[in-house]
């Protein structure tokens, strides 16, 4: 074995603990990068293949009712490749084993359809006939353990029909199957069904007509012009306005997840790799400084500067490669966790997670290139070392009076305090980078913990302060106010309040958006409108309140005049004045007084939504009664929505938080551990001198311990600021048109981050004490000479 190879092995053995700590940091950063990037590519690939193979539509339109022949006119629009008319209907699903009502979204099925083709998982496609057959979406079928041949009942426009399951399938239109009355998937209480087109048209009086249209456009054709032509044709028939994939609910959520994974693969890994590179640069610089006599000796024996630089480059590469190897295993494990989440929430025929070669390449590059560049300046010192000069001991460092010592207060400082301040200020760049590394650890601790603060805030605001009802009942058509009295007479009903919801198209300058007006009673107690501070507010007469979404995205302001076009064209449009904005979390709605909305629509006072407070002991009887109530299309149970919300997020948030907390502790532990190793190694002569001068072990320990503690203390405030900023970016990543998560960082989250940093500091202090106690004064003083 060559001499330099043996030296390399000795250096690796001597620095083994520091090498392992740096390798762990590199592993964490590369693992997140590779896992997130691979998950992003896997999900994007699954989406693209599914959309292409099953012909996911480009444009969608819902309307009230239009004759079938209009579909032919739309097919003749230049740029339209395929246009298919269909029938959709919302129904109540009555399952024998479940008391709570479930909402079903029924879509017509035709064997000749070419768009949004169904992927058949089990059984066969439904066939028209005397017995109603239905194809069930996989998520609903799994939740209820349905299989081909099973039967259940549907309540369609007041008619109760028994249907038989012919098969189980998936559709690119419902990769993320979300109920309109729930914020998160609830597979027990929401299902997508497909009925033969002839049967569904007969049941909801759509024979020879359609109320939904899907279109496939030619590549590179402007979709906006096609949408305008479609809207022009279907506008007289109650069209809600056509929209493209960017506003299709399922596609929107899948795209948001892909975008978040792409962002995740950049921010967090950059922090880990930056800290690892800083520590690596510090250790290699220290190693070259300590081995300057060895380097000079090797040079005098004929080893060139390039050969010696290559030797230390190999040491750097060993550290980086040791970090890369476990990173692949970590990335695979994190990726499998992502795959389990995707399988739970996104219904693709298959999501094949694999470590992407592209992700591995970027992970390799992100680990090796910064590491090599960071140590290049240290390696350049080898070329500058003159053998004769390097044989002599290095000149002592220049310790002038620091700016703090020029202050009068410095005269009263204890000698140990002066020592630790001088040590920190003697190497300002190293101290600054150490503080920034510790700040990054604090920031990740906050970013990993603040999600629970958001969830608690959403639960408190949405489920306790805003939604105070137990049931939300929606009717097929507007009903007179007398229906509230009918509901109140059901045993177990305490309070009933009505609301009117009207789908509209909002027009303001260049803004043209589908939304809804929600009109409550002025004295509503079950469904309230709150401002940012949680205070109940009400729209003023002849004014509306808008979701904060409009102010933030479209720059609307108080006093603006909006034109609202009723979506189904059964009422004339009207103009309203913006009276303020609501800090809501879900949706992008418009709020008004019910009496104002009735006047704007020129209709008698009516409602199409009822909010009900019930006695839980009567819940089952009330569910059964509501299933038989005329024109009820959905019954939302707040308890079930809450359970869906918590079940969806709690496990995911806890796992994600645990991973980030582990990574943050890794950063802080690695930084503090290497700080101790470097300080003890560099200051062994000074520490031994202090012992000889009569300082106790505890006094010598305090110099380094408090020096490290001062850096931890200084790092906390910028770490808190950085954590707040990172949390702000995280909330921006998950914002959608449907959800606007507020930035909420509780005081206890900051306290937890600080407590963990202090704990890491104290644990490192134990290691520091053992190093100081075991210091060999004779050997330390010999090393100086």
Q: Report on the biggest sheet.
A: 6 strands, mixed, barrel
What integer is the average pLDDT? 82
Give the CA-CA distance, first to last residue.
31 Å
Question: In order across it, which strands form the biggest sheet?
Answer: 3-4-9-6-8-7
Helix content: 40-55%
Oligomer status: single chain
> Helix/strand-derived class?
alpha+beta
What integer value in Å does the Rg equal? Answer: 34 Å
Number of helices: 22
- Give the amount of beta strand, in percent: 15-25%
User: What would the principal axes of the Cα set say about the shape?
Assistant: elongated
Low-confidence stretches: none
Describe it for me?
Helix 2 packs antiparallel against helix 10 and helix 7 (249-290) packs parallel to helix 10 (357-384). This protein is of the alpha+beta class and 785 residues long. Helices cover 53% and strands 19% of the residues. The strands form 3 sheets. Strands 3-4-9-6-8-7 form a 6-stranded mixed beta barrel. The chain has a 6-stranded mixed barrel with strand order 13-14-18-15-17-16. It is elongated. It has 22 helices and 20 strands.
